[in-house]
């Protein structure tokens, strides 16, 4: 039998290249997106969903979660990202029922549960809009080293919010597993979500 | 407003060049064709993004400065960018359509941001936007209103 460290050599190489891999403990899934296993905290928050119900991270245990920060007055990048995630969900077929897109508003002043409800449902029926106080959203954002900034507005009170573009993916146990950018290939997203959804299919 | 566009001007550069040499006054809008014009419709009163590909068949660059519409109270030329993992959107004054080239307004890049719809716009509608160029000329273009989760213009759709 080959010494175990040999198996770790390719992993060390990947680590040296800047990929964040979990180590050599167990057979890692052959994931294609940036692997953040062990480098980001578990899914945890206290927010309000788009039906006005108080929810926490624990309510989504058993689901693979795609967490994305944005706001409804964002007409370009947020809709594109959600539209792409919708295509990915469709490609997953019935498996997609095991996944949820959590769209967290970084614009607490304008985004109400009702607006979020109409917005997320225009993209995918497995998308959930989450709102919370500025403090709660900031805490969640900081937890994943993400950020958002409200830009100065115009005379009419219109303003934009610059925000992190990352999509954080959690497994069914709420463990942070992957980081995707909106420019990630749909093939890679479908591939990796397949792997996470196939794992522990029965919660 | 519909531009007075002579179809033969679009036939080719050579012809256009000859006409120009002959002293025909051609505006920026005369040399620009729009294609793949669409709007991503979002629910309620939320602002929408409009996208279009502009082709310039002249030997001079032309500059898009914005658009107006009877359907929206406000239209702004915007650019989205992602740097350092942050997405932001900013206003731009002009977008150049290079000589014999094209400029693409597409998701996650340049777009026309449409605000304050005067009447609700639904997927399937056609919305006329009047594109404005730096020489003051205009090009009325039909944009197809598409659902929020559309990725692109869908069926080939040429604006006029
Ligand atoms: Cu914009």
Query: What share of the residues of chain B does DSSP label as strand, in percent?
Result: over 45%
CATH homologous superfamily of chain A - what is it?
A: Glutaredoxin
Question: Architecture of chain A, according to CATH?
Answer: 3-Layer(aba) Sandwich
How many independent structural domains of chain B? 1
Mean pLDDT of chain A: 87
The CATH class of chain A: Alpha Beta
Determine Rg of chain B (CA atoms, Å). 16 Å
The CA-CA distance between the termini of chain A, in Å, is: 36 Å
Describe this structure in words.
The complex is a heterodimer of chains A (203) and B (160). Chain A is an alpha+beta fold and 203 residues long. Chain A has one domain (31-151, 158-191): Glutaredoxin. Helices cover 30% and strands 22% of the residues of chain A. Mean pLDDT of chain A is 87; it is low at 1-25. Mean pLDDT of chain B is 86; it is low at 1-11 and 14-19. Chain B has 160 residues and is mainly beta. Chain B has one helix spanning 13-21, and strands spanning 32-40, 48-56, 62-69, 72-83, 86-91, 95-97, 102-105, 110-117, 126-133, 138-146. Chain B is globular. Chain B has one domain: Sandwich (Immunoglobulin-like). The A-B interface holds A 72-80, 82-84, 86-87, 115, 118-119, 122-124, 146-147, 151, 158, 160, 162-166, 181-183 and B 40, 42-44, 46-49, 78, 80, 82, 85-89, 107-108, 111, 113-115, 147-151. The site of copper (II) ion has 4 residues of chain B, from strand 8. Residues 78, 89, 111, 113 of chain B line the site of copper (II) ion.
